Amino acid sequence: MTDLHRLSIRELSEGLKQAQFSSRELTEHYLKRIAKIDAKVKSYVTVTAEQALVEADAADAAIKSGNAHALAGIPLAHKDIFCTQGIKTTAGSKMLDNFISPYDATVVAKAKAAGLVTLGKVNMDEFAMGSTSESSYFGATGNPWALDHVPGGSSGGSAAAVAADLAPIATGTDTGGSIRQPASFCGLTGLKPTYGRVSRFGMIAFASSLDQGGPMARSAEDCAYLMNVIAGHDAKDSTSVDKEVDDYVANLNGIAVKGLRIGIPKQYFNVAGLDADVKARVEESLKKLEEMGATLVEIDLNMTEAYVPTYYLIAPAEASSNLSRYDGVRYGYRCENPKDILDLYKRSRSEGFGAEVQRRILIGTYALSAGYYDAYYVKAQKVRRLIQQDFLKAFENVDVIAAPSAPTTAYKIGANLSPTEMYLGDIYTLAVNLAGLPAINAPVGFDKDNLPVGLQLIGNYWSESQLLSIVHQYQQNTDWHTKRAAIAEENA
Ligand code: GLN
Asked: Of 46, 51, 81, 207, which is the most exposed, with the fewest CB atoms less than 10 Å away?
């Protein structure tokens, strides 16, 4: 079969069960595509071909025996921020270029236990700090829709791999938009779950009160399948929540779009820098949801102007603390011939970290330092609470809130935005993490340059089923999620 990469997760699961093809054939098919096409996309940092085939054979045996998980034998790619035992985990940094984790992240362990086959580890912004994946030590990844454009970030490798059909699904992480924005830039569906829904154990920490892993795929249905595997309480992550996990696949048609109240924040559609095509496509998608029976309700989110400054204090503050562990002593990069211990710390960190990571550490350390702590960090925490309350108030009147995922479509590689310009591009995604809410991106069309546009739906706590169900029904009535970039149509 030459077009196995066109099948959905449900179709792959059925095909494997009915022995139309084996996991080995499917895995070889993807490995061949990666070998041929990824030279252009550059989405993978590490391809684990040999191990993938071993896992595929094991899955084939399990499927034959009749008691395999629904996803057994289906390949996936992991963002290179999830620790994988025996396989390099770099977080896109020179600091961890040679780091091999002695254990699996819980997300990785759960995927393995279900029999999913790991194709490899995919590129990302260094320590997940960025919106273009260009800050990776391993170089930029191309957007499958236009290779001279970025796939977004920080989960840009995950997005590019799926959009170029170099993996049917991928894991990502979202601290301030890193699942939703690359999904938007690459025309994919991506879900950022409620904080605490997916275990952070073994996920290299950026900002621990904001970080959350989730699925990236072509459709809400594909995301639901992966969510069924990775969601749930984990005793190894004290911030994961012990709450029953929905069957996200069974619930895909469970929410009625008819009668659904969708909040449209006034402030969001007046943001300076909101691209006219993005605005138009998002409005068209809302019109479609209206036709399907939803009601659009104008709402106020008065804290909008505070999102960027609040996040860009709290996230760097937490990062500066989390990244203090990379000292050249225990693991990670160590400078050559240190004169003394201070020289070892200084040079290992200034040679091992890239510019954006160093910028965040400096900002965060400053914000946390004695004398400034109250003025910056404590104040940001108070504003964070106000942002959360703003959302909770809105959810008294609406079921979900709609927004663009990003104010623009994908930037050109090397566009060299200033840090402030780059940070402003996160305006629509940051507040969701500050409040700990779930949100989803769905592709809703293209701009004049044929680059994808995404709609974001933000839900109340634990409403992952609702978000997946709304997008699933939208996708039953539209075909944006079925569009493929030309490079994905190439055969290996
Ligand atoms: N772009 C944001 C940042 O640079 C969000 C990144 C993320 O979600 N990991 O911090």
From this structure: 51
* 3-state secondary structure at position 1: coil
Question: In the block, which residue shows the tokens 């829904």?
Answer: 197
Taking the centre of ligand 1 as the mean of its atom positions, its distance from the CA of residue 30, in whole angstroms, is: 29
Alpha helices in 208-247 (DSSP H): 220-230
Q: Distance from the CA of 439 to the center of ligand 1, in angstroms?
A: 15
CA of 175 to the centre of ligand 1 (A): 6
Angle at 41 between CA 39 and CA 47, to 5 degrees: 60
Q: Is 178 helix (H, G, I), strand (E, B) or coil?
A: coil
pLDDT, tens digit, 9 for 90 and up, residues 464-481: 999 999 999 999 999 999
Among 307, 146, 310, 246, which Cα is nearest to 464's? 246
Residue 47's nearest CA partner among 80, 17, 71, 19 is 80
Q: What is the DSSP code (8-state) at residue 84? A: B
**Of ligand 1's atoms, which has the minimum distance to the CA of residue 130?**
4
Cβ(365)–Cβ(320) below 8 Å: yes
Q: Return the pLDDT at 1.
A: 63
Task: Based on the residue annotation, tell me whether 258 is a catalytic residue of this protein.
Answer: no
The finding on whether 129 has its CB within 6 A of some atom of ligand 1 is yes
Give residues with Cβ within 8 angstroms of 378, minimum separation 6: none
The amino acid that residue 269 corresponds to is: F
User: Is 428:405 a contact under the CB 8 Å cutoff?
Assistant: yes
Domains of the chain listed by start with CATH number: 7-252+479-489 (3.90.1300.10)
Q: Using CA atoms, how far apart are residues 449 and 431, in angstroms rounded to an integer?
A: 29
One-letter identity of residue 105: A
Q: What is residue 491's predicted lDDT score, i.e. its pLDDT? A: 85
> Residue 177: CB within 6 Å of ligand 1?
yes
Q: How far is the CA of 366 from the centre of ligand 1 (A)?
A: 19
Q: Probe ligand 1: pick from 93, 131, 216, 312, max atoms within 8 Å of CB?
A: 131
The angle that helices 23-41 and 156-163 make with each other, rounded to 10 degrees, is: 110
Residue-by-residue DSSP string for 93-148: -GGGTT-B-SS--HHHHHHHHTT-EEEEEE--SGGG--SSSTT-TT----BTTBTT
**Is the shortest distance between the CB of 166 and ligand 1 below 6 Å?**
no
Order of strands across the sheet with 295-299? Answer: 44-47, 117-122, 75-79, 170-173, 213-217, 189-192, 439-446, 452-459, 400-404, 261-265, 295-299
| pLDDT beneath 50, residues of the chain | none
Ligand 1 in reach of 174 Cβ (< 6 A): yes
Bridge partners of residue 118, in order along the sequence: 76
The set of residues, in sequence order, having a beta carbon less than 8 Å from that of 20 and lying 6+ positions away, is none
pTM of the model: 0.98
Closest CA to ligand 1's atom 10: 129
Q: Which residues contact 365 (CB under 8 A, 6 or more apart)?
A: 320
